[in-house]
Amino acid sequence: MSTSSKAVVSFIVGAAVGVAVGYFLNSDKKDELVEKLKDQTDKLKDKWRKRKDQFQDELENELA
């Protein structure tokens, strides 16, 4: 792929991302989506925290 065609593809992708972000920011469902993302993030944090604690306990038991 030549340099000019890469530039055109990059421009098109950038424009598409810009349109999507603009649509999202003006969407009525923005707050609902952000809240869902926060909930999912909290669930993932809890899940990883539990796995970390479990791993620490197992490691301490092996070293004891």
Whole-number count of domains: 1
- Quick check: average pLDDT? 87
Beta-strand content bin: under 5%
Care to count the β-strands? 0
What level of helicity do the residues show?
over 70%
Structure description:
This protein has 64 residues and is mostly helical. The chain has one domain (3-63). It has two helices and no strands. It comes from Chitinophaga varians. Pfam families: YtxH (PF12732). Residues 27-58 form a coiled coil.
Brief description of this entry?
By secondary structure, this protein is mainly alpha-helical.
Keywords:
64 residues; transmembrane; 2 helices; 89% helix; mainly alpha
Topology:
Elements lengths: L2 H23 L4 H34 L1
Organism: Chitinophaga varians
Pfam family, one: YtxH
Protein name: YtxH domain-containing protein
